[in-house]
Write a structure and sequence with these properties.
The two termini are 22 Å apart. The chain has one domain. The radius of gyration is 21 Å and the shape is globular. By secondary structure, it is mainly alpha-helical. It contains twelve helices and no strands.
Length: 278
């Protein structure tokens, strides 16, 4: 695979970053899809447990009272973190021309589970703290205050958006990755907002169109068999949901590459072309 996929040779425009993300996505989708599908299934372990035990999804809303449900939820979440991380590590390795063994990707992902989990907790807390003043308000005042506070919260989300990719690619700790993300994204809020917005809209359109086509094909081929339609639709939903993970990480990788080149200079290509730190 060509080494030019990551990092870029120069700073890129919004359109070029999106194009880089799609090129990384297309070049690595087949290799990453097994990880992504397994992550989707892992995330559904609590729901699978409820279905197998004869309970419906509405009963699953109160699953936090069931020790088995809680255990499966935590287990599924940890497995999903490992597999999500493995997707990024595989994309990074393939995009830089240093493909790694599957066992190496998974072992690295397992070692970084605590760091990734802590990073997401820190990110969530950093964003949620902005909305604490709304707890002392009621009604319209709470809503109006929340809308005002959403502005700095959105800025913070964008500023910390590269944290996960930084942690996995560079091996930094959770806090150091968030600080580095804040430094990289400084001055690029509107560019990044445009990139994320366009990518989100494109992904939603893809999901909508693909979902409609899949439903139509399932109905036509199943000849009214509800069981076949349900099974085909479920398989499609799992695959389609899984496709979002490689796309998300491909976009994160493309954004990280552009911001790193902008902030750290052209010599970054040489340094980042080496395999990710274990």
């Amino acid at each position: 695979m060509a080494n030019t996929l990551y990092p870029p040779p120069r700073p890129q425009s919004v359109g070029e970053i999106l194009d880089s993300a799609f090129r990384i996505f297309r070049a690595t989708l087949v290799q990453c899809l097994p990880y992504a599908i397994a992550a989707v299934i892992a995330g559904q372990l609590p729901n699978i447990y409820y279905l197998v035990s004869g309970r419906n999804m509405l009963q699953g809303l109160a699953g936090f009272r069931d020790p088995v449900w809680v255990t499966l939820y935590i287990l599924g979440y940890v497995i999903a973190i490992v597999l999500w991380s493995a997707v990024l590590l595989r994309q990074y390795a393939l995009s830089t021309g240093h493909p790694a063994e599957t066992s190496s990707e998974l072992s690295t992902a397992v070692r970084r589970v605590p760091a990734m989990a802590l990073l997401w907790i820190l990110t969530g807390c950093a964003v949620a703290v902005w909305f604490l003043p709304t707890l002392a308000l009621q009604g319209t005042a709470r809503l109006a205050t929340a809308l005002v506070l959403a502005i700095p919260a959105c800025y913070l989300v964008v500023a910390l958006s590269c944290g996960g990719a930084v942690l996995l690619v560079t091996g930094r700790g959770p806090l150091a990755s968030l600080v580095h993300s804040f430094r990289l994204t400084s001055g690029s809020f509107w560019r990044l907002t445009s990139i994320y917005t366009v990518a989100f809209v494109l992904l939603m359109v893809l999901y909508l169109v693909s979902g409609l086509l899949a439903g139509l094909v399932s109905v036509l081929l199943a000849h009214g068999d509800i069981a076949v339609i349900t099974a085909a639709t479920t398989v499609f939903v799992v695959i389609l949901s899984a496709v979002g993970t490689p796309f998300f990480w491909a976009l994160a990788l493309a954004v990280l590459g552009d911001l790193s080149v902008r902030k750290e200079g052209a010599d970054l290509a040489q340094r980042l072309s080496s395999p990710a730190a274990s």
